[in-house]
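sry for the spam today, last one i promise. struct tokens for design, 114 residues
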């Protein structure tokens, strides 16, 4: 019985060595490629802050168990980028690096008025 157990141990040791010696394949992206950023179209809810607006957007999500569509509304703070924006405007915002604690989107364009 000892012979079979030593053979099994040797096989497992060999497998571990093979795994350790194999080199992982690392894929790098080209420098010219940009990362995909989220873009959202929403309505301006508040313009009380300087250089910042609050944009509200709605999306529909199916309930996990029942399948009924539920409206989910979220509010996001976005940098104005020097664009003149008033209350009720429809704007397009894009995700960026964090600008402040709550602000990680910037306004790209003004789509129109509701």
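last one done:
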């Amino acid at each position: 019985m000892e012979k079979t157990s030593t053979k099994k141990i040797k096989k497992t040791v060999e497998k571990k060595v093979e795994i350790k010696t194999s080199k992982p394949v690392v894929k790098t992206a080209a420098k010219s490629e940009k990362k995909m950023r989220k873009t959202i179209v929403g309505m301006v809810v508040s313009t009380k802050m300087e250089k910042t607006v609050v944009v509200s957007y709605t999306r529909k999500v199916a309930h996990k168990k029942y399948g009924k569509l539920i409206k989910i509304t979220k509010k996001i703070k976005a940098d104005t980028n020097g664009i003149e924006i008033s209350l009720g405007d429809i704007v397009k915002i894009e995700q960026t690096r964090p600008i402040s604690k709550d602000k990680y989107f910037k306004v790209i364009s003004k789509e129109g008025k509701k």
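Residues 20 and 30 are 29 Å apart (CA to CA). ok im logging off now
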